[in-house]
Amino acid sequence: MIIKYPMDKEKLKELKAGDVVEFEGVIYTARDAAHMRMKKMLENKEALPVDFNDVFIYYAGPTPTKPGHVIGSIGPTTSSRMDAFAPMMKELNVTATIGKGPRDEDCTKYYQKNHILYFITTGGCGALLSKAVKKAKEVAFFDLGPESIKRLEVEGFKMILAIDYYGNNIFEG
To answer: How far is Cα 133 from Cα 116, in angstroms, rounded to an integer?
Structure first.
């Protein structure tokens, strides 16, 4: 299914775990260091440098961009490292996260209860995924290098829904 976001936001409710999606819209990257910094800023009641309301966050840190390319290879990082930040996704009103691998039981339940979707992409496909990125801009935490937050405009970004709104999870029997 093709999802043009946010125009097709209502289509997200139709998706079931296991559905393959070609995403068109904006995705923000944020890995471990960015999540830790955001959490600390929220705890200190500081304003975040990016409004994450109603967005998709991709657990990725792109490799350096080669001349003539929009972005370097942009494969997913292991999502379980982000499980501790699940409550922050609700606080930020994030629509979905993207990574690879299963989430722990608490994170899965939290996502299901709070209607946060979890998509996966395949590790090792970073070069292929980078071809879906039409524009890329570093927008926050520049000192973190590859783990800085980037705003990506994508077309045909392929991913699989792993945790849907209805309690289905492709990683459970």
So the answer is: 23
